[in-house]
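Checklist before submission:
- one chain only
- standard amino acids only
- sequence pasted in full

Submission:
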Amino acid sequence: MKKQLPTNNKITDWMGKFDSNLESECCIRYALTFNLLNTDWLDDILDLDITYGSQSVLNTINGIENYLSYLSGKIKTLKNSDKKVIADLGTSIENEPCVLFYQSLGNYDMNWLENPIAYVTFKCKNNSLIKDIFMVTTAPSPKSVEKSEIYPGLKEKPIIKIKKIIRNDETYENLKFTYFLYDGELSLDKKMINTIPDIQTFFEGCEIEIVFSLRDSRHIDIMKSYFNGIDVNIFNIDKGSGWDLHMKIVESGFVGFPSLSVYWDNNIIFKNEGILSSEIIKQEVQQIIE
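Returned file contents:
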């Protein structure tokens, strides 16, 4: 039996943006499922032959039993995890209703609500049952979705509580800056590269890591020449320890270059997709580390 949906003016206004209420209602129920970690919100709205696909997974899940088994396992994992997931109602660039997902990557991840990791769209049959669910993680970028800041099931907007890191000494040996670049030669890449000397000077003892998306090793040689005399670790995601570095990009939720992740003891404390000045990077990190 269908659970009755919560209603308020914000939800009503959001639903009014779309031609059909079927998909928008599916979005609300799906967001409730993840915000309240309760699959009952999807009772009696899934087609027997439902399909679930994702850009980050090769195989499609077919059939209601297989999908509910997958979903129940996902919810169980989230219940036992400290990496909170939040679902927001959104509008895709195709002007379709969708569910936008955010996930904290740890206790020190202070800007996770600014970096959506995925969004989900729905297709319904004429009988209003969901026949297709698809998760977009890469293209179009989840950042392209217009967010509503409506979080069904939550009484208020999530609040990020900044957890301060207290250093044991004057250095920043536990601090690492990982720059994700396309090839190091694009103008956007170069602007981020130019922040590195200032970052190294300010955060004495920190580690700098540069990760390229391309396989061509010549970019590594160019960067090694550029940073001659400066301690910088340079990698290609397809060379050596490439898989670990590739997974670092995936876990950070980045879909574009350049991007930056900042770690303390291998825990993400800050992440950003796009250009930042060294001054802003320093300000953001100093908010967390004392």
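Reviewer check: Helices lie at 9-15, 21-35, 64-79, 187-193, 196-202, 218-226, 242-252, 278-286.
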